Amino acid sequence: MDDWRPGASKDTLLKRALLLSEIRHFFSQRSVLEVDVPILGHSTVTDRNIESILVDVAGSSGFLQTSPEFFMKRLLANGSGDIYSLGKSFRQDEIGEKHNPEFCLLEWYRCGWDEHQLMAEVVELVEILSAINQSSPISTSKMAYSECVSNVLGFDPHEISLEKLRDFAANIGSKDWLKETRENCLDLIFSVAVEPKLPAGLVLVYDYPACQAALSQIDRNSKGHSISRRFEVFYNKIEIGNGYFELLDAVDQNGRFDMDIESRLRDGKPFVGKDKKFIDAVEAGLPPCAGIAIGVDRLLMGMLGSASIDEVMSFSWPRT
User: Fold this and answer.
1) For the segment 17-48, what is each residue's pLDDT rounded down to a tens digit?
2) What is the mean pLDDT of residues 69-84?
3) DSSP assignment string, 31-84
4) Does domain 10-139+243-319 have CATH number 3.30.930.10?
5) Could you tell me which residues are beta bridge partners of residue 82?
6) CA 116, CA 118: separation in Å to the nearest integer?
């Protein structure tokens, strides 16, 4: 690697610029307001699987934001209506072929919509963006999480016992997985055993298990299983997005933050306090809405068939 050279070629930089321009045009045509929110804040997420970058600000601690979500939801609670953000986010220790500690994130919220309406818009957006880089239309698949897992592995993830799930995870990981939570075992199994076997093109997977609800509402599917109203988006077998029919209950939200904090302490991870201003916004009242965050760098990787995120960025972390 020539230390001073960018990772992306001039042609890729041109395609990236066009991609960003088309995203803004897409939302402008639909009267979705672009908002500019802080990338540096006093608080951050409690999620045990996400580590924030801590910074010193005039002698006090702050965090580079892992996504614009909390600030955007505060805008929603204040009556902003449909909004989107297109900008940088940051996560600690995420370096690899599909990860960079600084990345470009597109996040948007549709008031009065559910997750299936939002999925339809995701398909519309990705089809328009894909046309920039290829002449033939992309294939699109939409399936429930249980269908994805059972098609590949032969069991229903909502019904399998925790003991059997741990055994399965240990077989593809290590014996350490025999002590892991249901949520983490499912994460490993899906990413290692299911994701590589997803169809090519655009794939939307919905109705994740309730233990993976994050900030989405919980419901029941047609079989009576408890599911989260959450979906993920994959482009040519690369995970690019995570969407929710958003949780509106402040008491439930507070409880989930408590569970996050307990999990972090149990795992020996740094303590992260709750974002009180975000909780206050939820208590004030979020409008019913669906939202999604899409990694723009990963989307471009999938469109161009790039092997590494370094190939679609001017300067990834190793080049800075």
Assistant:
1) 999 999 999 999 999 999 999 999 999 999 98
2) 98
3) TPEE----SEES-----TT--PEEEEETTEEEEE-S-SHHHHHHHHHTT--SEE
4) yes
5) none
6) 5
